[in-house]
Amino acid sequence: MKAQDITAVSAVLPSSEAAECLLELLDADAFTPTVWEDIETGTVRLDIFLEEATQADDVEAAVRATAELAGVTVELTRDTIPAADWSEAWKRFFHVEKITDRVTIRPSWEDYQPADGEVVITLDPGMSFGTGKHPTTRACLEFLDALAVGDLTRPVLDMGCGSGILSIAAKKLGFTHVRGFDYDADAVSVARENAELNEVVIPYETRDLANNLDQGAVVLANILGPVLIEYAAEVTCAVLPGGALVASGILDSLYPEVKAAFERYGLREERSVLIGEWRSGLFTRPEEI
In degrees to the nearest 10, what's the CA dihedral of 202, 205, 209, 214? Predict the structure, then answer.
């Protein structure tokens, strides 16, 4: 069977903040937007890849309406990407990247020779978000690397696993019990493929925060700030007494509200890190709340 061409609806955005605003507002629609940020040029681009070209008109209308609601100016373009060129259409944004002294992200199509003791996470993200380039993912990996110097038998829970990058990193850093979930079935599928690519076994499930029953002594929640506020009680319940929460996906301007929401349920902020306009925090849950 001949591979199908892909239709791309794209918009260049004024900032990553504008992009995240659109991502949040577009979340309920029947398509998956992806944001690429070129660190060298500062260009932020939102792409929506469609297997059915007939969807393009509806997608463009939805993006325009959402942009108007968010007060963001966008100029939309539409392109057809031949199936043979699809894998090359987005690879130019993703290269080997060293995150910490011992954690490096490698795309599956690039060769890399790791140093002794270096942990390399190999990714083939496809249409799923999470390559390590975004400041929120980078901050999570930095916190996770620091947490990995402790007891590696502590169970890890990756909430909103995306491409699986954080849970895979946890496993390769030596944590023995790692699980993950996402509300997006496509993300769960990609995470499973990436886990297999890295030769690690991680149970991933499709569910949302409201229906989570798992707990972890290390909980990773790289989720948008408003969602963390709304589900602060559920996220807190996922953290075992004496455990730690890495919370990310939070604009610096919203971070005080996220921090207050978690403190309301008994979590304590240990420290936070600001990368660009994104702040991520490390919280702990006392033995008794």
Answer: -60
CB 159 within 8 A of CB 136: no
The predicted-structure confidence for 198-255, as pLDDT tens digits, reads as follows 999 999 999 999 888 899 999 999 988 889 999 999 999 999 999 999 999 888 889 9
Token pair, residue 115, equals 């140093």
Q: In what order do the strands lie in the sheet with 103-107?
A: 97-98, 103-107, 119-123
In this structure, the answer to whether residues 77 and 120 fall within a common structural domain is no
Considering only CA atoms, which of 88, 132, 83 is closest in space to residue 109? 88
SS3 283: strand
Asked if 118 and 153 sit in the same domain, the reply is yes
Taking a C-beta distance cutoff of 8 angstroms, is the pair 227, 202 a contact? Answer: no
Domain boundary among 62, 86, 110: 86
pLDDT over 70 percentage in the chain: 86
Query: What is the identity of the amino acid at 61?
Result: A
* Strand order through the sheet with 76-81: 33-37, 44-50, 6-13, 76-81
Both 157 and 246 in one domain: the answer is yes
Question: Does residue 56 lie in a domain region?
Answer: yes
Fill in the amino acid letter for 134: H
Q: How many domains does the chain have?
A: 2
Residue 63 has pLDDT above 70, yes or no: yes
Beta-carbon contacts of 200 under 8 Å, excluding residues fewer than 6 positions away, are 168, 171, 172, 178
pLDDT tens-digit map of 115-151: 888 899 888 755 445 555 678 888 999 999 999 998 9
Q: How would you classify residue 208: left for phi > 0, otherwise alpha for psi between -120 and 50, otherwise beta?
A: beta
Could you count the other beta carbons within 10 Å of the beta carbon of residue 226?
A: 15
- The confidence score (pLDDT) of residue 46 equals 82
Q: What percent of the chain has pLDDT over 90?
A: 39
Whole-number pLDDT of residue 2: 44
